[in-house]
Description:
Keywords: Membrane, Transmembrane, Transmembrane helix. The chain crosses the membrane at residues 26-44. The chain is an all-alpha fold. It has one domain (3-45). Helices cover 72% and strands 0% of the residues. The protein is built from 2 helices and no strands. The protein has helices at residues 3-20, 24-41. The longest helix has 18 residues, at 3-20. The chain is rod-shaped and about 65 Å long.
Amino acid sequence: MTDTDAGAGSEDDGQRSRRWRINEDWAATVVGLMLLALVLAGVVPEGLVP
């Protein structure tokens, strides 16, 4: 195995993980918007929302 072969495999792994990574701020934003949509749609009962 050469150094270039080892580098190519790790580069592919980095590109795959970079493609599917989501920042925790964006994850919290998406969860918050989903909760807001559920409340506005009336799926969440009124007693659960203060």
